Structure of Potassium channel family protein:
Amino acid sequence: MSFIIVGYGRVGRRTARILHEEGYPVVVVDNDPDRADRAREAGFEVVEGDGSNESVLKRAGVENAVALGGLTGDPNINFAACMIGKDFGCRVAMRISEDFREEIYDRYEEDVDEVIYPERLGAAGAKTALLGGSFNALGELTEQLRLTTVTIPEGAPVIGRKVNDIDLDDFGRVYAHGRKREAMTIPLPGTIVEAGDQLALVVDDEDDGLERARSTLLGE
């Protein structure tokens, strides 16, 4: 059961590396010989070919893959690869740029599990989109402090509350807020939390801070 990364450019390369470092098997698909060679040198299994071609993705093991990320710079290739992956039961995430018109974004969003803006989120965001889930520890700032994002689901206890009123006691702090298709920003005093919003946190993980934050924001 592997993760397929279509496109070994900047975003695909970093996403593949993060998944690999966390112990997930990764297969890289790319039609550029130089990038394919770099992926092999990095230790990845590589299938050379067009990631929007079903036969190529079958060679990459799409029939048994957990998830597929269309992470090339071409949204048409990404979308086609994701649709093939979805047909085989994969979780799929596709990369687009932030300058897409809203109706184009909506069309893609209806058909894939995650639409991602790696230019803003980085490889860690692409990785968490492929893994799924709503509570994602993106990385460590120090030995104790952890940078975390959370997507607020329907029914969460913080829905309807002001972001600035969310009290994480002494184990964390909300420092940014974003809505679908919007970049995260420092929340205004009156910003109300809605289902689907994203919150970025810094959490002190020395005394189970991640679990305490999860309980406060998402409920038991």
Summary: The first helix runs from residue 10 to 21. The chain is about 35% helix and 25% strand. The mean pLDDT is 83.
